[in-house]
Amino acid sequence: MLTPIFVIFWLAIIFCSVVADVIIMVQTRNPRTIAFCFLGTLGLVLTAGFLIAGVGLLEGAWTVYSPGFVLAMGVGCAGIACFVKGYTKARQFMRVPDPGKCSSCGYPVGRLAVCTECGAALPAAAEPSTVEALD
């Protein structure tokens, strides 16, 4: 009885994910961000394995040791992994580093060339132009 509710909820989540991917695509125009966002959406689609496994188990077609159940659960787990990897990497590429902070760990570094907290190389700090220095 709850299966149709879960399917509708799952489809709504995928629809919202695709809409969010399109918005991110329009805003960022960064191919790597877009690719990782769609990897996250693919992960959501693969989580259908959990629904399939649950229906097969509830209807008595499978037991916990059936190959079909194990395969469906594996596909669902792969979906979770794709979702987590895709969206965490997409957020990393969308993040705009704060000036004066390390882009890797967020530690305040000022004008240093290397982060003292994590050791990441930092972009060179912009030197004031000669016109600004004369004013």
Layout of helices and strands, plus pairs?
Layout lengths: L2 H26 L2 H16 L1 H11 L8 H28 L35 H5 L1
Helix pairs in contact: 1-2, 2-4, 3-4
Approximately how much helix is present in the residues?
55-70%
Q: From the alpha-carbon coordinates, what is the Rg to the nearest angstrom?
A: 23 Å
What's the helix-strand series?
HHHHH
Overall SS class:
mainly alpha
Count of helix runs: 5
Percent in strands: under 5%
- What's the structural domain tally? 2
Q: How many β-strand stretches? A: 0
Largest sheet: none
Give your account of this protein's structure.
- With 135 residues, the chain is mainly α.
- It has 2 domains: 92 residues; 39 residues, no CATH class.
- Helices cover 64% and strands 0% of the residues.
- It contains 5 helices and no strands.
- Helix 1 runs antiparallel to helix 2.
- The termini are far apart.
Give short descriptive properties of this protein.
5 helices; 64% helix
Summarize the structure.
This protein is mainly α and 135 residues long. Helix content is 64%, strand content 0%.
